[in-house]
Amino acid sequence: MSLFVGFKGHVINRAFGPAAGRLRWRPALSRLLCTSSEEQHRPSTLRHLASKIKATGPIPVAEYMKEVLTNPVTGYYVRNSMLGADGDFITSPEISQMFGELLGVWILSEWMGAGRPKQLQLVELGPGKGSLAADVLRVFGQLRPVLGEASVSLHLVEVSPVLSRLQAQTLTGSGSREAAGEDEPVYRRGETGAGLPVSWYRRLEDVPAGFSIFVAHEFFDALPIHKFQRTARGWREVMVDVVPNRPDQLRFVVSPSPTLASSTLVQADERRDHVEVCAEGAVVVQQLARRIVEDGGAALIADYGHDGTKTDTFRGFKDHRLHDVLSSPGSADLTADVDFSYLRRMAGGGVACLGPVTQRTFLKNMGIEARLQVLLRSCSDPSTRKQLISSYDMLTDVAQMGERFLFFGLLPRCRLAKPPTPAGLKLERTRSPAPPPVAGFTELSFS
User: Fold this and answer.
1) Are the beta carbons of 288 and 299 closer than 8 angstroms?
2) The pTM is what?
């Protein structure tokens, strides 16, 4: 059956400590990265970080990112609503409804490919304002006969209280309620207008077991990364330090000796001289793989990224512009391109990995051009038609998001297995049937 309905870097110079004697930290940048005088952040994030560094020494970039983004008191994601025209960046679901609609079709396609289980849990990691989930659920509503009697539920993994309230308003209106205790695994519950249950979690491991389709759009790029530099004495970790005698300024330095991370996280066959490794991303992708193997389902990851080719991609965004990552910590988003070759390696052999393919390829394979024509035929307003075309261009154009975003899939290995030959048939002279195609990663025809 056919179904159809501000881009987020600095260069690190090589500077290393002495081989022996008292350890010294050398600046890793010829230009010190200074903070601004934004007083509202200095009493919190910056002073907290400066005190921590003075007490324990320079901290890994991963620890810096975690403190800046998700500290329970001062974290950027905890305190701010950063999405949309008034925030620091805009994501694809806010650009066009077509993006979420086509992902909804992908989810239904994989649910059907799994044999139409009686349960379908849609799990979104880092759901933004809830726009993507809303568009997906609208597709579910339009294709309700396809779902039949299947039990459908929505599960959102979100650490930001501010964003969870926005998501609740988008998806449930005023029909959500917070848990009585802060340590409850489900900290908010609600129902959509159509009666679908929605649950919020701080951790992926708290989402109930069961057949699930996982979606992670611009989630992995915000997970903390370790940065490593190749030196004459081996790999060394890049750290964040306070500028001597300047407690209001931060700088990058290179560790003079190996750290646990530099000794364990860099691959033995690594050829790049500078590499970023997201250990938390490895944990998440391993959790996804394990759940897919045990309970069935699939995962779709969409993000800025590369396939093991880039080096220094760590950057900040504020007011839709690039922002110095060490300036006014807590006032801007921090991100790094996702290394999909690393995720593929960490996922292990229990699942099949597809991609990465460019967003342009994925959306075109999903039929975005046909969807655009349907919307244009039903719209007579010139300004709305212009907006639809502009949104399509932004999502697919090579110079915009078309090739900067990549799509990556995790599927059960049996999903790509060739169908069994019916007993009693002799097909020696015919080709074996091909595995069923996977939407988005394969060019499909729509009728």
Assistant:
1) yes
2) 0.84
